[in-house]
Design a protein that fits this description.
two-stranded antiparallel sheet; elongated; 301 residues
Length: 301
């Protein structure tokens, strides 16, 4: 900055700290986001935001109706002779000021301008619900208030109707299926999908950068995993190998403790050894059954 050159070094130092802090958190502290799905956002969009728009429309109509919010209505005529005269006003700073009131000064009376507090019907906030003898709206304000009042009724009716329609759809779903498939069959087996990812029992740990395998990974293709440690093999994260040493002498086997996952490749098909570059295909241990493929076996004990 030309005004304060030292700010350049201060900002550089702040960005330096921010970069290394985020990098450490990304590699060592943070973990994967929970699989929450879109249920919360859909509920918020359907119900919360719709209700907020409805409340905004109704409250705005009452605010337009209550303008100018001073609860004063002008009396007809200008007969203020009984108040005519000279008046001395005491100011807040201790001084005094003299005001002259003449008979031509307009007079006002109290009138409640908050339609929510009015006795009798006051919804929607339209000019027809002004109390008799206590009207305060001008002709232009009456036109604007009428538009806002009836518009709030339309918004309220539309949103309430959508709520009832959604309730009816949910009730109908208890007796009639509503699922509709999206897209067409692409005639591509699951084993030939480049981003293949199967269910393999894993345990997340704050100590390790990658999940721990709760099954014997031997015999499984590396392409079935959705992660790969560039520095260590999968055997480093295999809990069955640790259990073999810990359970030695107890007469227990890892088959009675851990899940058993088996993998059978489709006959006559092979996958490229390099992850993400499929050549032909292989079957997986989870997901849907591919076309003309042998079904793999997955057993959890």
């Amino acid at each position: 900055s030309s005004i304060y050159p030292g700010a350049l070094f201060m900002c550089s130092f702040i960005l330096f700290i921010n970069y290394f802090t985020d990098r450490f958190s990304l590699m060592r502290t943070w973990k994967r986001v929970g699989a929450l799905g879109t249920n919360i956002s859909q509920f918020s969009r359907k119900y919360f935001f719709s209700s907020a728009i409805c409340v905004m429309a109704v409250v705005s109509s009452y605010y337009w109706a209550g303008f100018p919010f001073d609860n004063l209505c002008a009396n007809e005529g200008t007969d203020s002779a009984e108040y005519a005269g000279n008046y001395t006003l005491k100011l807040g700073d201790g001084g005094n000021r003299t005001e002259v009131i003449t008979a031509s000064y307009p007079t006002f009376r109290y009138c409640l301008q908050d339609m929510i507090l009015l006795e009798g019907p006051s919804f929607p906030a339209i000019p027809q619900f002004q109390p008799s003898g206590g009207e305060w709206m001008s002709s232009d304000q009456e036109n604007i208030t009428a538009i806002y009042g009836w518009s709030s009724i339309g918004v309220l009716g539309l949103i309430v109707s959508s709520f009832f329609w959604q309730l009816f759809r949910n009730f109908q779903g208890c007796f009639k299926g509503q699922y509709k498939p999206a897209g067409d069959d692409q005639a591509q087996p699951f084993s030939e999908v480049p981003s293949i990812s199967t269910y393999i029992p894993q345990v997340n740990s704050f100590v390790f950068s990658y999940p721990l395998l709760a099954c014997n990974y031997k015999g499984l293709s590396k392409d079935l995993f959705d992660w790969q440690d560039p520095d260590r093999p999968y055997s480093y994260y295999d809990l069955t190998e640790d259990a073999t040493d810990l359970l030695e002498g107890l007469g227990l086997e890892d088959r009675t403790v851990f899940s058993i996952v088996s993998y059978v490749a489709p006959p006559g098909k092979r996958r490229s050894k390099k992850k993400g570059t499929p050549s032909t295909g292989s079957s997986a241990t989870s997901g849907g059954q591919a076309n003309n493929e042998e079904v793999p076996n997955t057993t959890t004990l």
